[in-house]
Amino acid sequence: MTARAPARRKTLLLVGCGKMGGALLEGWKRNRVGAFHVVEPAPTTRVKGARYYAAPDLLPRTLKPDAVVFAIKPQDFDAALPYYRRFAQASAVVLSIAAGKTIPGMTRVLGADAPIVRAMPNTPAAIGRGISVACAGPGVTSAARALCGRLLEAVGSVAWIEDEALMDAVTAVSGSGPAYVFLLIECLAAAGEGQGLAPALAMKLALETVAGAGELARQSPDGVAQLREAVTSPGGTTRAALDVLMGEDGLAALLRHAVAAATRRSKELAQ
Known about the structure:
Layout: E1 10-15, H1 19-30, E2 34-39, E3 51-53, E4 67-70, H2 74-80, H3 85-89, E5 93-96, H4 103-110, E6 116-120, E7 130-136, H5 142-153, E8 156-160, H6 167-175, H7 177-194, H8 199-219, H9 224-231, H10 237-245, H11 251-270
Parallel strand pairs: 1-2, 1-4, 2-3, 4-5, 5-6, 7-8
Antiparallel strand pairs: 6-7
Helix pairs in contact: 6-11, 7-8
């Protein structure tokens, strides 16, 4: 029997290496995804084995990446994108995590046949616990989609959607969502302080409660509503608190308004 040849290592070009780009790069290194080239004028950290370039015009003309990953700020995106058209025209899949930058908008610059995947990760990617939602453009092959999935899975779980219009809601729920959870921790700790707890103890209780409850919800076969009900005794302390949180102007209403506001803003930024 003829031995199967080992799979060729993928060549990856990362554009931007801030917090999210750096998290991706660390995840790729841990998972041995491929060989890395990074365009970043002022890298704060360097990953061993990656090649760094201060500007796109310094990239070797012979470079043929399998994927070009954009992890730059949206305000810098439009000026940077044209420099990478040659890679998209050579069939490199373009994976963009720039908020508000649409597949049709990128196609106008990179070409009608450019394979483009748009994704929205979130900040827990820094510890490998992110959630990314991705949408593939019409020029993306199954192999290119699989590669993008693998790149995103290096920092957490991945979900795919077919309708790019849903990315605004995704941004509002999971992209911005960590900030909502951090605010919950802040507010829960402050409320504990208001009832006489020392600040350090109140923060520890809030942090560990949110982290533990989240992990329990993730691992439990029960739904979150069942988990909530299991903690809630009739006439007990939890019930008294939930009567406030589940009131007409309570947490559910606040989150509906918050997510709607973030969704609207995401749509405005995409225009």
